[in-house]
Amino acid sequence: MPERPYVIDEMISAKAIAARIEDLSHQIRSEFAETDKLVVVGLLRGSFVFIADLVRELDLAIEVDFLEASSYGDDMESSREVRILKDLRGAIEGRDVLVVEDIVDTGFTLTHVIKLLKSRKPARLRTIALLDKPTRREVDIRADWIGFEIPDEFVVGYGIDFAQRNRNLPFIGKVRFTDEAAK
Ligand code: PRP
To answer: What residue ranges do the domains of the chain occupy?
Structure first.
């Protein structure tokens, strides 16, 4: 993508994210209260910040594992190809699993990952997404828990990138282009 100048406007503050994660963690704790050892699976790369904050709010016995799936290149359009770039280290057969996603957009990534993980016969498979853009959905899928429903804006920060930049912002921001083409 050609370099275009942009600024980032704050959309969801770090404080609002922390408060929402605390709420969600209560719900997750009650869902998995009886579970021996929950496997929390982060989808790389976008979920690395969210999973780090979420697991520290979960007062449960957990294991953490990661799966890397990719449906985007460095551009802003989703392709329908979902590639698994890194698989789980551990087996999940008979285990309770929570998949942690940063954002559900078209829904292709989460759909593909759920299908793949279900084929490994977990006892229970649940999903959580920090952000959901329902107006972009192309396949009928919804995470079991959602942090925030957002409109169709280009968002960055808190793990989410813009052409591999800005993942380290502590809040969720909205990209606003400032060149002539944006006016
Ligand atoms: C992004 C995001 C989700 C997915 C959502 O991942 O992290 O995993 O796209 O899009 P979808 O609902 O349209 O499938 P990306 O492939 O950009 O990789 P990244 O997490 O490494 O940034």
So the answer is: 16-149
| pTM tops 0.85 | yes
Q: What is the pLDDT along the chain (183 residues), one digit of tens a residue?
A: 558 899 999 999 999 999 999 999 999 999 999 998 899 999 999 999 999 999 999 999 999 999 999 875 445 555 577 889 999 999 999 999 999 999 999 999 999 999 999 999 999 999 999 999 999 999 999 999 999 999 999 999 999 999 999 999 999 999 999 987 776
Catalytic residue among 65, 105, 132, 152: 105
Ligand 1 centroid distance, CA of 132 (Å): 12
Domain spanning 16-149: which CATH class is it, in words?
alpha beta
CA terminus-to-terminus distance, the chain: 19
105 flagged as catalytic: yes
Which ligand 1 atom lies nearest to the CA of residue 161? 22
Pocket test for ligand 1, best of 45, 50, 67, 71 (most atoms within 8 A of CB): 71
**For residues 111 and 99, what is the distance between their CA atoms, to the nearest angstrom?**
11
Q: Which atom of ligand 1 is nearest to the CA of 46?
A: 20
Determine the longest span between alpha carbons in the chain, in angstroms.
57
